[in-house]
Amino acid sequence: MPESQREVQALLALSQAEPPRRVRRLLDHFGSAQEALAAANWTAAVGANAPEQRPTQADFAWAAEQWQRLCAAGGRCLSPKDADYPPLLGQIAAPPPVLFALGPDDLTPPTIAIVGSRKASDSGKLIAGELARGLVEQGICIVSGMAFGIDAAAHTAALAAGGRTIAVLGCGPDVPYPRAHTQLYRQIRERGAIVSEFAWGAQPERGAFPRRNRIISGLSLGVIIVEAPQKSGALITVQHALDQNREVFAVPGDVRSGRNAGCHQLIKDGAKLVENVEDVLEELIMWASPRPQSAPVPAPSLPPEDESVYALLSHQPRHIDELAQDSALPPATLLDVLLRLELDGLVDQLAGKRFLRRAG
Q: Which one of 18, 121, 136, 344 is least enclosed by Cβ atoms within 10 Å?
């Protein structure tokens, strides 16, 4: 058996027995799934109080079957230790220990997610399509969940414009869902990528979709919400994006229909208001600007406390938790300082409690 096959099957068996966070710890500690399985104990990796859930023979038999189906479909199985694992996804708190991928796309940035209501209006689907088309014309890949409504409109427009698109499924990668999108599934598989953390043949279950939403946002530099009522499932993706320190964009709409109430609340909370592709590109250019190599120069005539916090900031957004750790200031004091800097026109606050120096 080739070494790569042994490692994939070991990883599959391990992921069948252990939850994602523990698999990640084991891989980080031992370097590979095979080394983890060969270790006498896992105490150093997962802690003395964590019971070991070693794979059974049934898990290894299941892994061998998964490998055969993977090969037959011409698919890939990636782990966070692989060089071609999506780099943005590898940065989140609980990246999938196993990511199945079908299709030619290499899953690399730049990537933007477009999500929204399944019961979207014609206007909402038109806007999603326009944004997707404009973004792929700039070389940006569109990520979504292949659901009805906004998701399908974004995928379809990206394909029609000859661009890249990635569909993240809440079922096995070989299971087109919803069934009505079988043709769309085939087109994405042929020209983009179908990805899933769920096993071959796994049928869609209600609890799988909130879980897959962390992958949609995790693959992306930011998430655009088009049409989302207050209780839309797309808002779960937004929460994941905020937790992952990704940018959140929201498209405003009719205030009377209720279709856009979730988007309007996001804008009130600090999400970037999007009317056209330029609004998104403007934010991405700022994100893509390289971090200064030298230490930032403190602003003149600031109190020492304010100056020390300002020196920690650059034109690259930083989360409040990072600033708290680096500044060693009490949280209440840090927030007061950031507010003063914001009122002085020196600092901007972005969605997700992220701060950066104001341009110019």
A: 344
Q: Is 83 exposed, middle or buried (0-12, 13-18, 19+ CB in 10 A)?
A: exposed
User: Alpha-carbon distance 190 to 74, whole Å?
Assistant: 11
Same domain, 14 and 160: no
Mean pLDDT computed over 235-248: 92
Question: At 146, is the secondary structure helix, strand, or coil?
Answer: coil
> Which candidate, 193, 143, 199, places its Cα nearest to that of 175?
199
Residue 122 within a domain: yes
User: How many domains in the chain?
Assistant: 3
3-state secondary structure at position 183: helix
Contact 133, 157 (CB under 8 A): yes
**Contact assessment for residue 249 and residue 279, using Cβ atoms and an 8 Å cutoff:** yes
Q: Please give the average per-residue pLDDT across 73-90, as a whole number.
A: 90
Range of the domain at 147: 111-288
Which residues fall within 8 angstroms of residue 256, CB to CB, at 6 or more apart?
Answer: none
pLDDT, tens only, 317-357: 788 888 888 888 888 888 888 888 887 778 888 766 778 88
pLDDT in tens, 346-355: 888 876 677 8
CB atoms within 10 A of CB 299: 16
Residue 46 has pLDDT above 80, yes or no: no
